Every structure is written in C-alpha cells, then in structure tokens.
Amino acid sequence: MSLSTFHERKEKVISELVEEMNPNRSDKSPKGYIDAPILDLMRLINQHSQFYTTSSCSGRVAVYCEGVDDKKKTSATEAEAAKSTKGGKWLYVTHDPVLIPDTLDDKEKWILQLLFGDSYADLTMEPIEDDQAIINQQLVFFKFEPLILHVEAETAEAAHELLGLANVIGYQNSGITPSRTRHMLAIRSTHKLDVPVAAVHPTTQKIHLLVNTSYLYVLFRLSNQKFNQNIDRMKKFEQAVQSQLLTKDQLETKEQRRERKRRDGLERQKAVVGDSQEESDRDARERGRMMLDMYEDLEIF
C-alpha cells in the first residue's frame, strides 16, 4: 500500500505547481512552469475532488538529435567523437505555433538557424550517399507532439469515467496504467509528426541535412495546422470536463461525499485483508509441504 493517501499526494503536487515563469521558483518540469495553453484545463481537473494532474505538455514542435549508442560504433574514435551528444539533445522546442515572417531576405538561413540553433555552424547540405550508413548514424528528428496529460484518479470508477470522456473527445491513445494501489491515466492522441531530417556524421560530427529547406517549411506549416487542431480539441475537453464532471462533482452533497469515502475506505480495507489472507494461505501451504517432506524422510521399521 502507498505510504500516502490520494488527498495527501494531490495536496503536495498542486502546492508545487508553478503557473508562470518565476525566476525564484520552478516546478519539476524541464521548462520549470506549466504551458499556458493547458493551464485552464489543468485548473478544472484539479478542482475536481477525485482527480489531480501529475504532469503535462500542451503540445510542442521540437528538433531532437538522438543520443549515441556506443555499441553501434565501429571504433573507439567514433564513439569518443560523438560523446558530446550522448543521451540526446533538444536543438529546438516551442509550445506555440511557429510564426513564419511574410518576407525574408534569406529563407534558408532563417529556418536553419531557428531549428538547429547553436548547431547551425555544424550543418552541411552535402548529401550522404550510403543510405545504409544513415540508418546506423545519429538521426535528427523534426517532431510535432500533441497534448499529453497524466492524471491520478481517486477510484477506478472515476478513472474510467475520465477515460471515457477523453476517448469521446478524440484522445484515442489514452489509457489507464494497471496498479493495485493507484489509478493513473495518460490522456493523449496519435496526432503527431516524427520525421528524420538530418544525420550526424560519426567522425566529423557534421550534421548532414537529408531534406531541403522547402520541405522543412512544409513541416512547419503542417505542425501549425496540428497545433490549431490540438488547441480546438483541448478546448472541447475543457468544456466536457466542466459540464460533465466538475458540475456533477460540485452538486454532490456532504452526505453523499461522506458515504462515497466510507465505501472507498471499505474497499481499501478489503484489499488489505485480502492481501493478508493470501499471505496466510501461502504460509499454510508452505508449512504443509514442509511437514510432508519431513514424513517422507522418516525411515519406517
């Protein structure tokens, strides 16, 4: 059994949330505070007595360089040359649609500097002729990742209710993590892009583009469309949580809540008793086997 109750965990997690950038305080996320587009949805879920959010991302566009797997390197020199990116590296991340200027003096330079940042100096348009070699090298991916939200529910019934609502809205890749002590949900969709756009040469560490810059602009525009669809779906989910979950929760009387908590307590007590009984049965079976072994070892005259 968990050492803390649902409400103790909820209180602790919510107290540590940071809703906007704060130089003196940050939460456990890499960014340090909640993405603005998902903030209203999180507030609604956290208002409900039977839910709280444990982690979130409102959606993002990113360029990610894979980490190095030393076992795939053909020499110690190659492995050493790639150590700077071992473990992977985010070259670019934004949680908002990308604003593409209407006029640009140098469209190619603008998009490459934006996506590759400090690694822009290592870029080359020189192609890699051996396609098999590319597969074995570090790849650089252009990604669009939609909303993902992790939630703990107080009961299995509540978890299934929220999951059903998420599925109806369109988060078809959502699910509940099996656990005997907690009811965790991941709310997400398959509305994503994950495209290799460059490869890192294992010796020179030069980043070789696999696509032209026109294709990168296509990916940007596709991602912006997906961002808009992602926000629309998020707003529908907010409305559904408000109308179908939160309103019902607020209408629950004190007596009803007391009775629900009493039933939940009895269910947890049954689970503990069941665990104890199962352990007792195992001990009894083990003692029986030991007695049988002892009698079988006795010599009968």
TrEMBL record:
Catalytic activity of the protein: 4-demethyl-7-[(3S)-3-amino-3-carboxypropyl]wyosine(37) in tRNA(Phe) + S-adenosyl-L-methionine = 7-[(3S)-3-amino-3-carboxypropyl]wyosine(37) in tRNA(Phe) + S-adenosyl-L-homocysteine + H(+)
GO MF annotation: an example: methyltransferase activity
Annotated segments matching region Disordered: 249-287
Biased composition (Basic and acidic residues): 249-270
Matches recorded under InterPro entries: tRNA_yW-synthesising, tRNA_yW-synthesising-like_sf
Enzyme class (EC, first level): transferase
Residues in the signal sequence: none
Domain tRNA wybutosine-synthesizing protein as annotated: residue spans: 8-242
Catalytic activity, EC: 2.1.1.282
Keywords: Methyltransferase, S-adenosyl-L-methionine, Transferase, tRNA processing
Listed GO biological process terms: methylation; tRNA processing
Primary role: S-adenosyl-L-methionine-dependent methyltransferase that acts as a component of the wybutosine biosynthesis pathway. Wybutosine is a hyper modified guanosine with a tricyclic base found at the 3'-position adjacent to the anticodon of eukaryotic phenylalanine tRNA.
Family: Belongs to the TYW3 family.
Protein's name in the database: tRNA wybutosine-synthesizing protein 3
Native source species: Umbelopsis vinacea
